[in-house]
Amino acid sequence: MELEGNSQTKPPCYCPNDLVCAEDPTCLHGAPWNSNYAQQIMGGELPGTNMQLSNDDNFHDVIHPRLAEVENTCEETSIDCVLKSVTVT
Known about the structure:
Blueprint lengths: L31 H12 L6 E9 L10 E2 L9 E9 L1
Parallel strand pairs: 1-3
Antiparallel strand pairs: 2-3
């Protein structure tokens, strides 16, 4: 239940004016499953030797919809690169 961000464990953080919600200990920032597992599964093997994925998942209601985004790019020849994304649950 914690990995999926179930609202019975903690209420979701909603920030209708921003894509990324501020950290708040009273609410759940996003679904940990998306950041910890789903992005790595969907991204597959990355071509660079030390490429990594870093994701920031956020809850948003359908009244104020937001779209996911990728914040940077990594060249295939990059030795060290962290591909940063923001997802919406």
